[in-house]
Design goal:
This protein has helices at about 1-20, 20-30, 40-50, 50-70, 95-120, 130, 135-155. It is mainly alpha-helical. The longest helix is centred in the middle third of the chain and has 24 residues, at about 95-120. The two termini are about 25 Å apart.
Length: about 170
């Protein structure tokens, strides 16, 4: 069935969107714990002195939270609020609650990532931990956008009689 194939592709794309920022997250969290993963001691010291390790860790935490929310695009709790959410438990999740933020974030990540790719310099490979994780941002953004589109189509109502989308 075409819908089964679309559901499989939707899950695969969503997992790509979940895993794509992991490389970025790992490097930034390593720096927070004092491990200069992929960067020179000088850059590491500079990041520590300026608080850059905290900023990187905060962005990694936002990314990890975003990955958990992205998972909702393929899980039941992305369609019906789970029991532990006060006042909303058991109610239908409005599709726009997921589609709008995920769509905006996918655009921002994709545009940012394309800027990084276009301005990438191989001279930055000395600090590969700072530069190369950002090269995955276009993949992350495009995968998140595609996952959002699959979620949108999956959440569209269908007529039980003829199978056409309800409007």
């Amino acid at each position: 069935m075409a819908s089964d194939s679309a559901a499989r592709w939707g899950r695969r794309i969503t997992y790509i969107a979940i895993l794509a920022p992991a490389y970025y997250d790992i490097t930034r969290i390593a720096w927070l714990f004092g491990i200069p993963l992929g960067i020179t001691k000088e850059l590491f010291q500079s990041l520590q002195d300026t608080g850059g390790v905290w900023a990187g860790a905060a962005l990694a935490l936002v990314s990890i939270c975003g990955a958990m929310l992205t998972r909702g695009l393929i899980k039941p709790w992305g369609e019906v609020f789970p029991p532990w959410i006060p006042f909303m438990a058991g109610k239908r999740v409005p599709p726009a609650l997921a589609i709008v933020p995920a769509g905006l974030v996918s655009i921002i990540i994709t545009v940012t990532g394309l800027g990084v790719v276009l301005n990438f310099s191989f001279s930055s490979l000395q600090n590969w931990g700072a530069s190369t994780p950002l090269l995955l941002f276009p993949i992350w953004g495009i995968a998140l956008g595609a996952a959002t589109i699959f979620y949108y189509y999956r959440r569209q109502g269908r007529c039980n009689h003829c199978g056409h989308l309800d409007n």
